[in-house]
Amino acid sequence: MSRKGNNTAGILAGLLAGAAAGVILGMLYAPEEGKETRKKIKNKANDLKDQAKNKYGEVSEKVKDQYSNISSTFKETANSVAHTVKDGYDKYKDQIVAKTTDVVKDVEAELNDLKS
């Protein structure tokens, strides 16, 4: 998952850098005053910064949600396995105790027979 996240982040960064370069080049070659061009570049840079922050927020929320889902699923699975193991242990423990009790009774009966 981290490899996919790195690829997505790289692609997003590349797209934003390409868009920014395109906007800046377009403005620099437009026939306007330098002051007006600098103002447009500043506004566009602020817009791109806001877009990047929004995308970061969206991606961050998705990652948090996925982590939460995976964490919950793991906890549920671990609890289920623990209960299954405990139930199996209790079941077989009771069977072993019952068999051991039967064996002890049989041995005691044999010893009583030998004494008589």
From TrEMBL:
Transmembrane listed as a keyword: yes
The keyword Ligase is assigned to this record: no
Transmembrane segments: 12-30
Keywords per UniProt: Membrane, Transmembrane, Transmembrane helix
InterPro entries: Desiccation-related_membrane (IPR052928), RRF_sf (IPR036191), YtxH (IPR024623)
Gene3D superfamilies: Apolipoprotein
Protein name from the UniProt record: YtxH domain-containing protein
Protein's organism: Chryseobacterium tagetis
Lineage: Bacteria, Pseudomonadati, Bacteroidota, Flavobacteriia, Flavobacteriales
